[in-house]
Specification:
21% strand, 149 residues, 6 helices, seven-stranded mixed β-sheet, alpha/beta
């Protein structure tokens, strides 16, 4: 999935065990969907906390961050509770959504690539960013794109 593509529809449980669909999430504005490999790890914590720390900036541009990984609901809930994210974390334990977005790894111990998609209210991908090493780049680049619209 790249800029201009239509994001696939999906429904996954959030960190509270509630089903959340992409269509529901984009009703109030763009969604910044960021995939991360594993909750509670150093890199993923830094990435997710940077999104949390920029919450007011995302709100100002009418966008909502949404994290997604293969972690189960209980692990997502513990991750969210520990860091008070304030945005949904979605559980994709079978990797079906990761597969649909082209971020599922075939080999290695980490099941998901680190990639962020800015998705408009019509499900068009407005931008896509990847960096395995620069954890702040995901939120920073998404905000830059949204501010420029």
């Amino acid at each position: 999935m790249e800029t201009g593509d239509i994001a696939p529809a999906f429904t996954l449980d959030d960190d509270h065990g509630n089903p959340r669909s992409l269509d529901e999430l984009i009703e109030s504005g763009p969604v910044v969907l960021f995939f991360y490999p594993q909750a509670m790890t150093a890199g993923c914590t830094a990435q997710a906390c940077h999104f949390r720390d920029l919450a007011a900036d995302f709100k100002a541009v009418g966008a909502t961050p949404v994290g997604i990984s293969h972690d189960d609901v209980d692990r997502q809930a513990a991750f969210a509770a520990k860091h008070s994210f304030g945005y949904p974390l979605l559980s994709d334990p079978e990797g079906k959504v990761a597969e649909a977005f082209g971020v599922r790894r075939r080999l290695g111990i980490v099941a998901t690539k680190r990639k962020t998609f800015v998705i408009g209210q019509d499900r068009t991908i407005l931008g896509a960013f990847k960096s395995e090493l620069n954890m702040n780049a995901h939120a920073d680049k998404a905000l830059e794109l949204l501010r420029g619209r």
